[in-house]
Amino acid sequence: MTRHVVIIDDSDIDLKVLSAAIDACGMRASVFCNGIDANEVLFGEAVDLIILDVEMPFVHGTVKARILKEHPDTKDIPLLLISGKSAAEMQTLSEECGADGYITKPISRQHLCNTLRQFFADDQAASDNATSC
Amino acid sequence: MLPETLPGLNLAQALERQDGDVAFVKSLLLVFASKHGEVDREIRQALSCGDREQAIRCVHTMKSVSSYIGATQLQTLATKLESVLKEEDEVQLKPLLADFSTEVGQVMASIDKLELEPA
Predict the structure, then answer these.
(1) Residues 69..88 of B with a Cβ closer than 8 Å to A: which?
(2) Domains and CATH numbers, chain B
(3) Hey, where are the domains in chain A?
(4) pLDDT band, residue A131 (cuts 50/70/90)
(5) Which residues pair with B20 in a beta bridge?
(6) CA distance B67 to chain A (A)
């Protein structure tokens, strides 16, 4: 089944780069320039992963992450933060808002594909282990 | 085909990030030209309205946007400008913003030149 990835980023070029990379690795991308517009898909469709930009106007990415991680309908959807901040800053932010990981910009098409494939493989393995216990 | 470099643009680096997809990199350059070509003016306007947060957001966005089109010097300047804005270092701000504007102009001129070249 084709993985469905929701990307939320206020930068048009970043959205274009990320969605092209997701298409190239055989997944489906839904793109939004703010977290509020994304709600219809996040709460109305099956979503396999959320990629959420940190620095956004109106609702900051970490605030949106907390909202999604506290809501019963979205708390189990894996969520990766993305930003041009340093890895150390991103690690701290991810832990603080309950995100499942982070990606630092800029990212190459190949690197994003590899990251997502690895992420889904690990997620599947964790799920299989949980089922077998 | 794209030239490997143009003033302000390392197109080889941009292409490498996008698996050599020339049409895609060209489309990124066009988006940059149409949506971000006046970013320096937007930053100045935000600062003149006292909206430093908006200025920082513009510069922060420029950090990743410039990297995707291979505008390495612009990316470096955006990174410095973001620090200066956050630290409220008014002494450094003016010359850095001037350099940033010059670099945006350089990148825009290179995109313009690229667009005029036959495909």
Answers:
(1) 69
(2) 9-116 (1.20.120)
(3) 4-132
(4) low
(5) none
(6) 6
pLDDT exceeds 70 at position B119: no
Angle at CA B65, nearest 5°, toward A109 and A68? 75
DSSP state of B46: H
- How far, in Å, CA of B108 to CA of B4, rounded? 16
Nearest to A12 among B19, B21, B31 (CB): B31
B chain contacts of residue A55, beta-carbon cutoff 8 Å: 57, 60-61
Rounded to an integer, what distance in angstroms lies between the CA atom of residue B110 and that of residue B66?
A: 13
List, in sequence order, every beta strand (DSSP E) within chain A. Answer: 4-8, 28-32, 49-53, 79-83, 101-104
By Cβ distance, the residue of A13, A20, A24 closest to B32 is: A13
CATH number, domain A4-132: 3.40.50.2300
Sign of CA dihedral A44, A99, A96, A34: negative
Give strand pairing partners of A31: A7
In the numeric block, which tokens belong to residue A109?
A: 């098409």
pTM: 0.87
CB B10 within 8 A of CB B3: no
